[in-house]
Amino acid sequence: MTQMRWLELLSAVRLGSKKSSNELARSPFHKDYDRIVFSQSFRQLNRKTQVHPLTQHDGIHTRLTHSLEVSCIGRSLGMLAAEKIKTELPMWITPADVGAIIQAACLAHDIGNPPFGHAGEYAIREWFDDAAHRDFLKELSPEEEADVRQFEGNAQGLRLLTKIDYHPDDGGMRLTHATLGAYLKYPWLSKTIASQGDRPSHQRAKFGCYQSEKETLQQIAEQLGLIQLGDYHYCRHPLTYLLEAADDICYALIDLEDGIILHMLSYEEVEPVFLNLLGDYGLPAELNLPHSTWQQKIAALRGRVMKRLVEEVTSTFAKHHYEILSGQLEGGLLQYCSPDIALGIQRAKNMAREKIFEHRQKSDLEIVAHMSLQHILDAFIPLTLPEKSLSFKEQRLMSILQQFGANFQHNHYQNIMQVLDIISKFSDHQAYELAQVLQGRRVAFI
Question: What's the Cα-to-Cα distance from 245 to each of 11, 76, 240, 309, rounded to whole Å?
Fold first, then answer.
């Protein structure tokens, strides 16, 4: 049976790098983390939706705070997992190195998400679905059409990391192949719409790479020795399983805390979910102190639960190590942990779906978010047609795009991707305010 090798999987070679350097203060993987932190795309996550669009509450998670928390859990998972399989790792790799790889990949895991979270993804997909019915996309290949009709934050993130930020079309952030491999949750291309039938935009299969970056995907996979499953289709990097677990742990638990803050849930509803996930770890003292606030209680519970989950997930990773290296493990690590963990995480997600995601307050904001992106796409995407003769209004719209760096050429697909690059970087508030301007409802004062 073919197996991947850690010697290749932990490659510190940088994508597009023209030099090699050693620093005493930080490893190549810590340098990856720093490059992501200082990128403009990462800063933009500060006012992007995690769950609640356009929220004015300072205590609610944004994509930035979520990404920071996921990176902390990812680092713990990476270091502990490496300790448990250290005899399998190259001599020059320390647990801290593995922790840094996952920490950097986790930090970037949502970097390609558009404004308004999943509502933004659905809005973009639905706009292009409608455009396809008007033959607007007829000059695109079936594969290119699939990319835009299935806009995917994960694939957009790979594009930002490897092509857009820092060194355009020359390695992007020039991260190590190990970090890029850990980032790639779905190391394959989109499927054509015809192969998926008429599935709604929110049910379309996830993928991690657009046609425009497929050669980059191949280069990453070959450098890391990922097992090839088809054309531009590879098995996951082993560390991706830990990134996915870190993300699942954070959003399953912390979405509930945001629900309490927004009065969509009560602490009394949430506490049993955390208690069921504690197992034999014992109750934190804060639960029995007479003057503990709900914030203090939930923080104590969260800390205990996360400690248990980190221990369980890393033990599961070590137990299934050879399956993972062979590309044979199906699903995520959490489902292979103790049965009460998978059940508890699912219970938390169900509560969020029923009490938060379907809440009228959230639905109203998602409608505003959806319409805002639709107006932006209505204005900008028609300008991507090659050789288009522009009206006065369209010239003004083109001027806005050019200020954001657009440089349209003769390739319709590449022009569309440039607009999606611009839109995906917008914060929620930037997108909302621009939509207001485009509808003539306000002036963007200088």
Answer: 22, 11, 9, 9
Rounded distance between C-alpha atoms, residue 178 and residue 100, angstroms: 10
Q: Which residues contact 361 (CB under 8 A, 6 or more apart)?
A: 262, 264
Buried b (16+ CB within 10 A) or exposed e, 147-177: bbbbbbbbbbbbbbbbbbbbbeeebbbbbbb
The helix/strand/coil state of 363 is helix
- Which amino acid, 132? A
Give exposure, 338-362, as e/b (b: 16+ Cβ within 10 Å).
eeebeebbebbbebbeebbbebeeb
The residues, any chain, with a CB within 8 Å of residue 326's CB and separated by 6 or more, are 1, 2, 3, 4, 227
Residue with tokens 């990097």: 237
Alpha helices in 176-284, H assignment, sequence order: 177-183, 193-196, 214-224, 238-261, 267-278
Listing DSSP states for 295-330 in one string gives: HHHHHHHHHHHHHHHHHHHHHHHHHTHHHHHTT---
Strand-pair partners of 189: 209
H or E element: which one contains 425? helix 412-425
pLDDT in tens, the chain (446 residues): 799 999 999 999 999 886 656 666 679 999 999 999 999 999 888 877 655 555 555 556 788 889 999 999 999 999 999 999 999 999 999 999 999 999 999 999 999 999 988 889 999 999 999 998 888 999 999 999 999 999 999 999 999 999 999 888 899 999 999 999 999 999 999 987 655 555 666 567 899 999 999 999 999 999 999 999 999 999 999 999 999 999 999 888 888 888 888 888 899 999 999 999 988 888 888 888 888 898 899 999 999 999 999 999 999 999 999 999 999 999 999 999 999 998 999 898 888 888 876 767 667 777 888 899 999 999 999 999 998 899 999 999 999 999 999 999 999 999 999 999 999 999 888 899 999 999 887 765 44
Dist CA 302 CA 306 (whole Å)? 6
pTM of the model: 0.92
Between CA 400 and CA 367 the distance in angstroms is 25
Q: Rounded distance, CA 158 to CA 173, Å?
A: 10
Cα(first)–Cα(last) distance of the chain, in Å?
63
CA 207 from chain center: how many Å?
12
- Cβ distance 167 to 190 under 8 Å? no
Phi, psi (5° rounding) for residue 291?
-115, 20
